[in-house]
Write a structure and sequence with these properties.
The protein is α/β, with parallel strands linked by helices and 259 residues long. It has a single domain, classed as Survival protein SurE-like phosphatase/nucleotidase (Stationary-phase Survival Protein Sure Homolog, Chain: A). 25% of the residues lie in helices and 29% in strands. The protein is built from seven helices and eleven strands. Helix 1 links the parallel strand 1 and strand 2. The radius of gyration is 19 Å and the shape is globular.
């Protein structure tokens, strides 16, 4: 364990006023020195987007937790960059934590998630990083069952999680704490969204579209994050940003065009 109080950067994608990040701050404020940099509005589904064609603004956020906090006009990944390069400039961030997200980021959802992209950005910057999500999309979701899970994982991470180029994707079932069966280290379940776009009419008769769709999940493995959540286990998936399909390298080298 480090001798000095660890510096922890707190991010989310639901916006700085979201109940999830407020709960996260309250659960961990005694575990280190917290710096909060979060979007000034909801940024769900932004993935790893960054702002390159418009200005960015950072605004001091008054709070009741006694922590340094700013809202940022950019994306969750922008918030990580601001946190490490501006707010904590000249200091070493010991841990990035993102969340608690309103809704699961299991399976394929991880690639769309602003919450997990913030954690992955922390890993890109060689900082131990964790994303937390509760399997409940409601604005008034009850996060109380997350408290001990979050604290125990962060405590372990501060002692053991290295800057090895991956982040932890932690998803917590939406059940009372006494119904949680434990924590499982898992793989990401194989699934995808079959999207549809519902056409609707505005008051002037113009068309607009609303994204909908069906989650297609046929992975029956009991070692997946979805299986864990369905069976009331907290899932932990080590998630990396290297998208290389290593098994295909040898096969592709046999193609005539690549020789």
């Amino acid at each position: 364990m480090m001798n000095e109080k660890p510096l922890i950067l707190v991010i989310n994608d639901d916006g700085i006023t979201a109940p999830g990040i407020q709960a996260l701050i309250s659960y961990v404020k005694d575990l280190g020195e917290l710096i909060v940099v979060a979007p000034d509005k909801a940024q769900s589904g932004m993935g790893h987007a960054i702002t390159i064609n418009s200005t960015l603004r950072l605004t001091k956020y008054e709070n009741n937790f006694g922590v340094t906090a700013y809202s940022c006009s950019g994306t969750p990944v922008d918030c990580v960059k601001f946190g490490t390069k501006v707010v904590a400039a000249g200091r070493t961030v010991d841990l990035v934590i993102s969340g608690i997200n309103h809704g699961t980021n299991s399976s394929i959802n991880v690639i769309y998630s602003g919450t997990m992209s913030a954690a992955v950005e922390g890993a890109v910057e060689q900082i131990p990083s964790i994303g937390f999500s509760l399997d409940n999309h409601a604005l008034d979701a009850d996060f109380s069952a997350c408290r001990n899970v979050v604290r125990s994982i962060i405590t372990e991470a501060l002692n053991k999680l290295g800057a090895d180029g991956y982040a932890l994707n932690v998803n917590i079932p939406n059940v009372p704490e006494e119904e949680l069966k434990g924590i499982k280290v898992c793989r990401q379940a194989k699934a995808y969204w079959n999207e549809t776009f519902e056409e609707r009419k505005d008051p002037y008769g113009g068309s607009y579209y609303w994204l909908a769709g069906e989650f297609i999940y046929k992975d029956e493995g009991e070692d997946t994050d979805i299986w864990a959540l369905k069976n009331n286990y907290v899932s932990v998936v080590p998630t990396k940003f290297d998208l290389t399909e290593y098994d295909a390298i040898h096969e592709l080298k046999q193609w005539d065009e690549f020789n």
